[in-house]
Amino acid sequence: MSKTGKIYTAIVFVIMYLPLLVMVFFSFNEGNSTANFTGFSLKWYKELIEDEAAMNALKNTLVLALLNSIIATLLGTVAAVGIFGMKNKWFKTGIMSVTNIPMMNPEIVTGVSLMLLFAFVGRLMNSPESLGFGTMLIAHVTFSLPYVVLNVLPKLQQTDPHLAEAAQDLGSTPAQAFFKVVLPSISSGILSGALMAFTLSIDDFVISHYVSGGFTTLPLLIYNMTKKRVTPEMYAVCTCIFLSVLVLLLVMNISQIKQTKKQKKSDN
To answer: Fewest CB atoms within 10 Å of the CB: 61, 148, 236, 266?
Structure first.
């Protein structure tokens, strides 16, 4: 890379990550100022732990993200296998286009449309409270599914199609061949999709805002905190989310690197 390219890359990284580093820095501020650093302290993290509303929102966020990643990964893996097995090229292209709509659609449009749908279904069922945890989970699974499909599908395309056939020739049933041969070969894609669904669920705000009802997650709590005076406690909440997502992305990247190295060794 040329010197100009290195300088440009450095500027891009500074613009992207300097605000995050400032936020993390001031989350350890001893005072309640968000502009002047008066000393290192874990005061705001302690207050965050003692804040019942914050801890309840954290529990809701983790439960929602975990269930979303499990359901989206199962449905997305099945969908990817089905799409991969389609023979009609035009139908397959159409299905992929429909699958990608939740990713391309603006989040506010998706959130409003889901809210209207849930309100309509709730009215048909004479339910006074149509929005809540269930609607949040459905909404999160909806926008997480395409990401799981796009992580699993390339791994299926890289898998040797003759492996499953060889397993069946040796006496395995189609189901046994899939679980013993195909599934292990696409496991890195499944893991990447699950982690992607988990991280998307943790930091989603726009769609959650419209379908939450009385169910509160950390992003919604942070939004409510910004209506008041901003304190380092909010920085502490944001830092926890940022570090959680960072750790998950590192795990995902490391697993992909290991899988790539393993694949290269097996090919050699």
So the answer is: 266
86 DSSP assignment: -
pLDDT at 66: 92
- Coil/strand/helix, residue 29: strand
Instruction: Give the separation between CA 241 and CA 248, rounded to whole angstroms.
Output: 11
At 155-167, the pLDDT tens digits run 888 877 777 777 7
Q: Average pLDDT, stretch 104-121?
A: 87
Q: How confident is the model at residue 1 (pLDDT cuts 50, 70, 90)?
A: low
Q: What percent of the chain has pLDDT over 90?
A: 10
Gap between the Cα atoms of 27 and 209, Å rounded = 25
Supply φ then ψ for residue 40, to 5 degrees. -75, 135
Residue 267: HSE in the Cβ half-sphere, 13 Å Cα cutoff: 10
The Cα–Cα gap between 253 and 199 comes to 14
Residue 229 scores a pLDDT above 70: no
Q: Which residue has the tokens 């006496």?
A: 171
Q: Tokens 């890195």 map to which residue?
A: 188
Contact between 240 and 49 under an 8 Å Cβ cutoff? The reply is no
Residue 98 in tokens:
């429909």
Of the candidates 96, 68, 88, 69, the residue with the CA atom closest to the CA atom of residue 153: 96
**The pTM of the whole model exceeds 0.90:** no
